[in-house]
Amino acid sequence: MKKNIIIFISLILGLTILGAACNLFHKNQELEVSITAELSASHIINLLAKDNTHPLLVNAITKANQNKKEPTEPYIEIFGKAFENTNPDIPLVKLFNIDKIDESLTNNSSNEETLNALHKEIDKRVIETITILKKRINRFGIRNNKFEQIENTERVLIEIPKVENIERVKHLIQTRAVLGFWETYDNQEIFQSLEEVNEKIKTLLANGKIELNGKEFQPTDYVLDTTTMVETEWAQKYPLFAVLTPRVNQQGQIVPGPCIGNAFERDTSTVTGLLRLPEVTNLLPNNLKLAWTVKPAPWDATNSIYELIALKVNNKDNTPPLDGTYITKASPEEGSQGNAYITITKNKEGAKIWQRLTADNIGRSIAITLDNKVYSYPLVNAEIKGGRSSISGDFNMQEASDLANVLQAHPLPAPISIVDVNTKNDSLDEN
Predict the structure, then answer these.
(1) How far apart are the C-alpha atoms of 298 and 72, rounded to whole Å?
(2) pLDDT of residue 18
(3) CB 146 within 8 A of CB 27
(4) What's the CA dihedral at 70, 159, 149, 412 to 10 degrees?
(5) What is the pLDDT of residue 425?
(6) Max CA separation in the chain (angstroms)
(7) Secondary structure class of 86 (helix, strand, coil)
(8) C-alpha to C-alpha distance for 126 and 150, rounded to whole angstroms
C-alpha cells in the first residue's frame, strides 16, 4: 500500500514539474517577439470627412503629422490643436459627415464634442484591426499570441513566439488587403490623351521647369545613351514617353488592352507625378484611375519593368464595383504548370455583381487589384456565373497562401505601419 502511495505521489510530482516546465517554455515562447504596429489615424479622419481635399482639413492633418512626436499622445488631440490654432472661428464639425461618426452630433456641435466622437471612432477601428490581425496570425499557424491596444494611442502591441521568417509575419500584418475588381479602359481609348499630355509637358518645360518631389524633371535624364543626339532630341520632343514607354508594337500600332505604357521601377514615381500635374489632369478622362502592376511584366527578362494599367471608375466614391467584402472563401491553388493562384468564392450578392460585371465586359479586361496594385487583368470571354474567380500574378505557393489568408480575414480599416520589432532573450537558450 505504501509503495503504491509513494508511486502515486511521485507521479503527481513528476506531472507537476513537467507541467511547470511546459508552462515556462510556453510563456517564453509567447513573449519572444513583440511587434508594435500603428494604425493611420489621419487616413480614418480623411475617410470620415465630407471632402478630404478641403484646404482646412489638409492643413490641419499636415501640421498634426509634423507635430506628432510622442507616441503616447492620441493623434486626435494633436489634430485638434493643429486645427484650432489655424482655424479658430470655424466649427470642426462642418468638415465631417456626422452620420458616419456619431448620431448625437449636430451641425452646432462644439470642437470638443466632435473630437471626442472622432476619438471613439478611431478606437473602434483599432479594435477592428486587432480582430482582423488576430485572425491572420491564427491562420498563419501562430496560435500562442497576444494582442492589445496600447492605452491612449492608435498603436497595437503584438506578442508572438519566435518565428523563422519575421519578414513574412510583418508583411502579413502590414498588408491592408483592399481587393478590387475594376472595369478598364482600352489603350486605344487613352492613347490620344497621353499624346496631349506629352504636348502639355513639353510646353511647361519650354516655359520654365517641372519639379517632382523636390527634383527638377529633365527628360534627357532618362535617355540611355546621352551621346546620341537623335535620342536626346527625341526625349525633348516626347518628354512623357521618354520615361513612360507607350504600349505600341514595332510597327507603331497601338497594342489593345488596358496597359497604356511601361516604365522602369525606379521611374514609376516620376510617371505618376507627371500624370498628376494640375496642368495635365484635365486632359485625361475624369473617371480614369491609374495603377501599376505589383510585379514586373512577364515578358521582361530584367525583372525591372512595370506596366501602367488604366482602370475605369464609375461612381463618385472612387471605389470598384466589386470588392473584398463579398468574399466568403479564398484558397491557394497550384496550377498544372506549377504556378500558384488564389481561388475566390463570393456570397450571393457578390456572385450577382460578378455575373453582371463579366456580362457587361465581354471582350474587355477586368483588372484585379490589391492595395492599389494590379495583380492581373484577364480578358473576359463570356459571362461568368456562380461567383467564383481567381487571382493570378506569378505567385509561389507561399505567396498565394499568405494572400489567401489576408483576403479571408477581410481588409484592415486603414493602413498600418510597424514602428518597432523587439526580439526578447530566450532564457532557455541562455542556460
Answers:
(1) 46
(2) 43
(3) no
(4) 100
(5) 58
(6) 105
(7) helix
(8) 10
Contact 359, 350 (CB under 8 A): no
β-bridge mates for residue 231, sequence order: none
> How far is residue 215 CA from its own chain's centroid?
26
Q: Write the pLDDT tens digit of every residue in 319-347.
A: 899 998 898 999 999 877 778 889 999 99
Strands (E), 173-239: 179-184, 211-212, 215-216
Coil, strand or helix: which one is 349?
helix
Contact present, 294 and 375 (Cβ < 8 Å): yes
CA-to-CA dists, residue 59 to 82, 93, 192, angstroms: 8, 16, 36
Judged against a pLDDT cut of 80, whether residue 40 lies above it is answered with yes
User: Residues 352, 338: contact at Cβ < 8 Å?
Assistant: no
Integer CA distances (angstroms), 309 to 42, 105, 366, 367, 374, in order = 28, 42, 11, 8, 7
Q: Which three cell numbers stand for residue 158?
A: 503584438
Q: Which of 172-181, 380-389, 401-410 has the lowest mean pLDDT?
A: 401-410
CB 262 within 8 A of CB 247: yes
What pLDDT sits at residue 224?
65
Instruction: List the one residue out of 121, 147, 119 whose CA is nearest residue 135.
Output: 147
Q: Are strands 322-323 and 179-184 parallel, antiparallel or unpaired?
A: antiparallel
Let me know: does 179 contact 65? Beta carbons within 8 Å: no
48 within 8 A of 425, measured Cβ to Cβ:
no
The CA distance from 389 to 179, in Å, is: 13
Average confidence (pLDDT) over 169-178: 91
Instruction: Give tens-digit pLDDT for 191-241.
Output: 999 999 999 999 999 998 899 888 899 988 887 655 566 778 888 899 999
Task: Kindly report, residue by residue over 227-279, the tens digit of the pLDDT.
Answer: 566 778 888 899 999 999 999 998 889 999 999 999 999 999 999 999 999 99
Give the whole-angstrom CA distance, residue 58 versus residue 66: 12
